[in-house]
Amino acid sequence: MRNFVIFGLLLGLVSLPALAQDFPKAEIFGGYQFTRLEGGINANGFNASLTGNANRWFGVAADFSGTYKTISGINASVYTYTFGPVVSANHEGVVNPFVHALFGGAHLGASVSGIGSGTANGFTMMFGGGADAKVSRHFAVRVIQADWVYYRFSGMSSNKNVRVSTGIVLRF
After folding, report:
1. Would you give the DSSP letter of residue 22?
2. From residue 103, how far is each of 48, 120, 166 by CA, in Å?
3. What is the mean pLDDT of the chain?
4. What are phi and psi for residue 55, nearest 5 degrees?
5. Which of 12, 117, 121, 153 is most buried, most CB within 10 Å of its CB?
6. Burial level of 161, CB count in 10 A (0-12/13-18/19+)?
7. Residue 91's closest CA among 124, 61, 59, 134?
């Protein structure tokens, strides 16, 4: 009986690495974004995020972005900082699809040469997802990320906005 218990404990210790799930614990994304704002305004900028994965399919993301546009001498920018859950299919395949719901704030800035500038802070939320193509264990390419974006500044809302991003993902 004693040998059986020792054999069972030894077998359990040897098999522990096989039981461990192989999924990235953290992912860092950085890349380009194209944003189509309500009213037909197209803007360009950056998108960056940090995701901590609790298990193979659930994580929490912090997403930061900046969008810039110059129209008729007006330089405008919109920065967002959002947080929320991410559901993904972190599996051993080449493509990793994901969806997320992000909530947070936005900062709008505008300046006119020789006249002045102004800013406003507001609420934003984003619903969307995308797909990462695995290149190696620690590197992937975000083929696409598409988000519907809602802004609310000083009682005025804008809900016909779309953000599309692409870039690289570092996985740890």
Report:
1. -
2. 15, 17, 20
3. 90
4. -155, -165
5. 153
6. buried
7. 134
